[in-house]
Automatic annotation (TrEMBL):
Biased composition regions of type Low complexity, renumbered to the chain: 169-183
Biased composition regions of type Acidic residues, renumbered to the chain: 111-121
Region (Disordered) residue spans: 1-124, 160-187, 369-398
Keywords tagged on the record: Membrane, Transmembrane, Transmembrane helix
Compositional bias annotation for Basic and acidic residues: 1-11, 42-51, 74-90, 101-110
Organism: Microlunatus parietis
Protein name: PknH-like extracellular domain-containing protein
Length: 565
């Protein structure tokens, strides 16, 4: 049989030898035939011992029938594309019949000649020259027959060959892809060398020792998943190849890395997958964990497409941060998730780690390599409603809080929710159009909720003027009304899409509801270009977010506004 390398060849059992032809003692020597090249032995499906073609010593079989989408290796005993001229139907040498040696006094054709005795019973016999001519003809016939048999054995489709075809150029007829696209052999593009390695992790933390903890060359629904990507994405193209590698480090609160590399049929298909995965990140959710997009960075120079976000997870004794990088180079899409407790790993450090893997992929993947990578402030990928906040933009308001959910953005037809300090009615702003969206928390039946309002005006000057009216109302509220207590507005800044500058303020206002009780509201306002965003949160005793997170939410609302015209 044929093994996995040339040293495993075992010779084919020889075909049955031709029966010898008993020729006369004076037979002439046949012409010398050209020397044939030695043939390469081939598998005749014999001499197979249990375990000869099994890699169970390494923990898995060489090939599993449970994997129909994986082409069978051509060195297996199951010969693909077997011709009809196989071992069962090959041309065999006919069984020879015993041949009687004729005496010299009787010619081989004597029986035929005897049948003509009625014509010339005493006709002359053939002479010595005639017998010699017939003998030479018989020898020539035997030689021709031998050559024909040899040609049939050497030239049959599955017979021995001096130059057997390699697996890469052999006809792959064992498996058929019903989609009409030829199935790619595993490993055609991705290799484990293209994954993030221990040496690549040094930019994340060079003081720690890194090692690969797990490598998967085949993925399924039970494989580890990156943050925000734990559920199926509708319409996501199926990757032709996918590999996962995880890395761990030592020390206190050690960071860890998960790298998923997926290869698609074309750069266009990979770009489609990138867009859908990016949208899932923009609307990030994690089952049973409060997850939100803590920061976002615009990443450049990391292949053809890239982005970076930091996701903050609640629900544990201390917060967990996940620095998530997406990068596409040609046909290959990378998702790298860097996890750390207490504080986050800066996106630029994670980008440098991913860049090392991208540079090992780009040539084979047919895409751009990592060159002069950089990151800067900017919005995260668009969420479920481009231009508006998504559930992934909002922090968990409490340990027992359910996930956020929202209605569809709608035109504002009446006064907005406010703290009673505001005097502007966004539904009546001259020359503007106001849209609102309301967010609630699943399982809460109280008054907790967040309202987002966006007004588009004719110019940036008008937007700035409207935003300043809000902050002036807050500052003057205690003078105009006796009961409210207003915290001094705090300035906020940010950067939107295309480097758009964001400016605004946030504040906290307490409004008494009775002699002993009061209600607190968080408010924020910002302008970017001709747009104004106003945010309003009504906390309760059990549901609220921090001052710092409220700043981030208001800036994020303005960032989102820059993602649409």
């Amino acid at each position: 049989m044929v093994g996995k390398d040339s040293s495993d060849y075992r010779p084919r059992r020889a075909l049955p030898a031709d029966d010898e032809v008993d020729l006369p003692e004076q037979q002439p020597v046949p012409p010398q035939l050209p020397a044939r090249q030695p043939s390469t032995p081939a598998d005749d499906h014999t001499d197979v011992r249990p375990g000869d073609d099994d890699d169970t010593a390494f923990g898995f079989p060489a090939y599993s029938e449970a994997e129909p989408d994986q082409p069978k290796p051509l060195y297996r005993d199951e010969v693909p594309g077997q011709s009809s001229f196989d071992d069962r139907t090959r041309i065999q040498q006919p069984a020879a019949t015993p041949r009687v040696r004729l005496p010299d006094s009787r010619h081989p054709d004597e029986d035929v000649l005897d049948d003509l005795g009625d014509i010339d019973e005493d006709g002359p016999r053939l002479g010595q020259r005639g017998r010699m001519a017939l003998l030479i003809g018989a020898v020539a016939a035997v030689v021709v027959l031998g050559l024909a048999i040899g040609y049939a054995v050497i030239g049959r489709p599955n017979g021995p060959s001096a130059n057997p075809p390699s697996p890469s150029n052999s006809p792959s007829t064992t498996e058929t892809n019903t989609t009409g696209t030829p199935e790619q052999p595993r490993g055609e593009l991705l290799t484990t060398e293209m994954l993030v390695a221990a040496a690549d992790a040094k930019p994340i933390d060079g003081a720690r020792d890194w090692k690969v903890s797990r490598t998967l060359t085949k993925t399924d629904n039970n494989s580890p998943k990156a943050v925000c990507l734990g559920t199926a994405i509708e319409g996501l193209p199926t990757a032709r190849e996918a590999m996962i590698q995880t890395l761990e480090s030592n020390g206190k609160e050690p960071p860890a890395i998960l790298h998923l590399a997926s290869a698609y049929g074309s750069p266009e298909e990979a770009a489609q997958a990138y867009a859908l995965i990016a949208k899932a990140v923009g609307n990030c959710t994690v089952k049973d964990r409060g997850a939100w997009l803590y920061t976002a960075r615009v990443v450049t120079g990391l292949g053809d497409q890239s982005l970076g976000v930091v996701v903050k997870l609640a629900g544990g004794e201390q917060p967990e941060y996940r620095s998530l990088i997406l990068s596409r180079t040609g046909r290959v899409l990378n998702v790298v998730d860097v996890a750390k407790l207490s504080d986050d790993v800066p996106v630029d450090k994670a980008v440098r780690t991913v860049a090392a893997a991208v540079n090992r992929q780009c040539t084979t993947a047919g895409g751009a390599c990592a060159k002069q990578t950089a990151d800067k402030a900017g919005p995260p990928p668009v969420g479920d409603q481009p231009g508006y906040l998504s559930g992934g933009d909002l922090p968990t308001p409490g340990d027992q809080a359910g996930p956020w959910f929202a209605d569809e953005p709608r035109n504002l037809t009446g006064p907005q929710h406010d703290s009673t300090c505001e005097t502007a009615d966004l539904s009546k702003v001259a020359g503007g159009r106001a849209v609102s969206r309301t967010f609630l928390v699943d399982g809460d039946s109280g008054d907790f909720g967040l309202d987002e309002y966006m007004v588009t005006l004719k110019s940036e000057a008008e937007a700035k003027k409207l935003a300043r009216k809000f902050v002036d109302d807050w500052k003057s509220c205690e003078k105009r009304k006796i009961t409210p207590k207003v915290e001094d507005p705090v300035k906020i800044k940010g950067t939107g899409a295309k480097d758009a500058k964001i400016n605004g303020w946030v504040s906290e206002i307490k409004v008494p509801t009775s002699n002993a009780n009061s209600r607190t509201f968080r408010v924020g306002v910002a302008w970017v270009g001709p747009k104004v965003v106003y945010t309003f949160l009504s906390p309760t005793k059990n549901l609220d977010i921090t001052d710092g997170d409220w700043k981030r939410v208001t800036v994020r609302a303005a960032e989102r506004a820059t993602q649409v015209n």
